[in-house]
Write a structure and sequence with these properties.
The complex is a heterodimer of chains A (309) and B (293). Chain A contains 18 helices and no strands. Chain A is an all-alpha fold and 309 residues long. Chain B has 293 residues and is mainly alpha-helical. In chain B, strand 1 and strand 2 form a beta hairpin. The chains are: A mainly alpha (309), B mainly alpha (293).
Chain lengths: 309, 293
């Protein structure tokens, strides 16, 4: 009798082969929560600091809970970032190249997956190489060429490379489509071919609908990465379209234009709370997108089978 | 004989037609690779051997031969310093990212409630990481582990260390969370390859009396070796291409600097590229999956 209850207890705390015990569960959850907290700490810190009023900022007693609801930082940051305008620019600058990039990369991935042609191995190797080549080694001649053509500062400067499968991180998207078309059965396409359908018709009528998950994943990732990309946007768009991250990197300057340091009272000087409000406003659209589409983000690797060698 | 010949011709034309159709799908990439990658790469290399002056009508090149390269490596004190720091920081970050991603993936691979929630948390940084955001967060000290980097005892300890050891540790302390933030995609890649390992191998090992500790070292880890290599390369490339990378920032600033210029920054870009390839080569050599007998 005693023996049985002891082993029951052991199972309860340490678990059996089919179930984790209580101790293991507590350990697992506390570990995950602790790591999760550290992981999200910059975001929490950013959000809480951005809600602090100037008096709270100076008060060492106020650490995690601001004494009042203070939206003032956000109002200032909203004006400094010229939010409606830069937000719209960012949407255009990220969505348009992303759509083009997705369409073109799917064509390329399909071509690689379905056809045998001379130089295919070399092409795959070069695609992988384009992933590694730093932008610095190719961007200056492009910039000079765009300057001559008068394209500097226009969305075309970003859309053109995407049209030719050379957009931001195109290699990853080509591989995603290559893998996902490889994993689709070919039977339907062969049947359509026997019925006399042209290759492009087969692609648009059969392959595109079947590969829809890869399209959705490619569009959202590509949009997010274009949104966050600042190296290329600064070089190609500076002086023309102003995106949200570009405006954020000039926050101090923009703030002093709006609220000249000599003329405003001490509470309206630039402080870290305003800066972090600007940062938070910058990532807010991405956070909304992420929480709406989180299933697509976190299941992306499985759905496209990118790791299948 | 004639029959076999005509048959061969049909097969050949079929293969050729297939190839032509294939090229029609990938032709955009081939043109794009030439126009946006290969030609700019060659041009940048040509710039790197010249003094480039941008004039109203175009650009003027004055040959310097390898002077830009020798200047970057021998005369410029900043570039070499930054390059060494970049190499050390990358070599420090990659194992941290890899081990962290693997531990998180192993935990998320277990069966428990709220798995999806934690997965969402650990992938979140991938969506919001951009240069200006990271810059702001680092400037406000939000990327160091709370209460660790500002401890006085630690600062005291650090000042006693030689510079080459102090810098990497300092980097670790001030941007530890930032390093972890680069592991989102890698966690997902690990998770999906963990799910591909055949469950029956674990059962067979358990029947033979292997503990789960042994099973991890003998089954899980060897199955992940290829994935680890992919993740390591992915980590190196994303860290190196990140717009807040010190070398990247320096090259960018030198492009528009009075005494820098396009030629000089092109030379530095190529040196940076070579170092990046060397790092990848080194890591690939160290981590290549061994042949198992």
């Amino acid at each position: 009798m005693k023996n049985i209850s002891l082993s029951n207890l052991k199972t309860f705390f340490l678990g059996s082969r089919t179930d984790y015990g209580l101790i293991i569960k507590i350990l697992l959850y506390s570990l995950l929560i602790a790591i999760g907290f550290v992981y999200l700490y910059p975001l929490l810190f950013m959000f809480i600091t951005s809600m602090k009023s100037p008096t709270d900022l100076l008060n060492p007693m106020v650490q995690w809970v601001p004494t009042e609801f203070y939206p003032g930082n956000y109002i200032k940051a909203f004006h400094v970032l010229n939010y409606p305008r830069t937000f719209l620019n960012s949407v255009i600058v990220s969505v348009l190249p992303s759509l083009i990039q997705t369409m073109v990369c799917s064509l390329i991935g399909y071509g690689l997956s379905r056809y045998r042609f001379w130089g295919k191995g070399l092409m795959v190797a070069l695609i992988l190489a384009t992933f590694i080549i730093p932008a610095q080694t190719t961007v200056l001649p492009q910039m000079l060429a765009y300057k001559n053509l008068g394209l500097l500062g226009s969305i075309l400067a970003l859309a053109l490379p995407a049209t030719f499968g050379q957009g931001f991180r195109s290699a990853i998207f080509i591989l995603i489509f290559y893998q996902s078309f490889n994993s689709l059965p070919k039977a339907l396409e062969e049947a359509a071919k026997l019925d006399g359908a042209s290759d492009f018709k087969i692609f648009f009528k059969i392959a595109v609908p079947a590969g829809l998950p890869a399209y959705i994943i490619s569009i959202i990732f590509s949009t997010v990465w274009y949104w966050n990309e600042t190296y290329l946007t600064v070089i190609f768009l500076e002086g023309g379209i102003q995106t949200l991250p570009m405006q954020l990197s000039k926050f101090v300057q923009a703030y002093e234009n709006l609220y000249p340091p000599g003329t405003v009272n001490i509470f309206d000087r630039l402080n870290e709370a305003v800066k972090l409000s600007g940062t938070f406003l910058n990532i807010l659209p991405l956070l909304v997108l992420y929480f709406v589409l989180q299933k697509w983000f976190v299941e992306s690797v499985e759905r496209t089978g990118i790791t299948g060698e | 004989m004639s029959k076999s010949k005509s048959r061969r011709r049909i097969r050949l034309t079929y293969r050729m037609r297939e190839a032509l159709n294939g090229y029609s799908f990938v032709i955009l990439w081939i043109i794009g690779f030439m126009v946006f990658k290969l030609i700019p790469l060659i041009q940048t290399f040509r710039f790197s051997l010249n003094q480039v002056t941008v004039t109203a009508t175009g650009i003027r090149l004055t040959s310097l031969q390898w002077a830009n390269y020798t200047r970057a490596l021998l005369t410029d004190p900043t570039f070499v310093q930054l390059l060494i720091e970049y190499v050390i920081e990358t070599l420090v970050s990659v194992p941290i990212v890899i081990i962290f991603a693997m531990i998180i993936a192993l935990m998320l691979n277990l069966d428990f409630k709220g798995k999806g929630f934690f997965r969402t948390i650990f992938f979140l940084p991938v969506v919001i990481t951009s240069g200006p955001v990271i810059q702001e967060l680092t400037a406000q000290g939000a990327t160091s582990v709370p209460g660790m980097s500002d401890s006085a005892a630690l600062a005291q300890f650090l000042t006693g260390l030689p510079t080459w050891l102090r810098n990497p540790i300092d980097y670790l302390l001030t941007s530890f969370i930032l390093i972890l933030w680069f592991s989102g995609v890698q966690i997902l890649i690990y998770l999906s390859s963990l799910q591909k390992i055949d469950k029956s191998i674990y059962e067979a090992a358990a029947i033979d009396g292997a503990s789960s500790w042994e099973a991890f070292w003998k089954i899980t880890l060897p199955s992940l070796s290829m994935t680890t290599l992919i993740n390591a390369i992915y980590t190196i490339v994303t860290l190196s291409h990140f717009s807040e990378n010190k070398v990247v920032k320096y090259i960018f600033s030198q492009t528009y600097a009075v005494n820098g210029g396009i030629g000089y920054s092109s030379a530095m870009s190529f040196l940076f590229f070579i170092v990046l390839v060397l790092i990848i080569g080194l890591v690939a050599l160290l981590m290549r999956p061994g042949k198992r007998d």
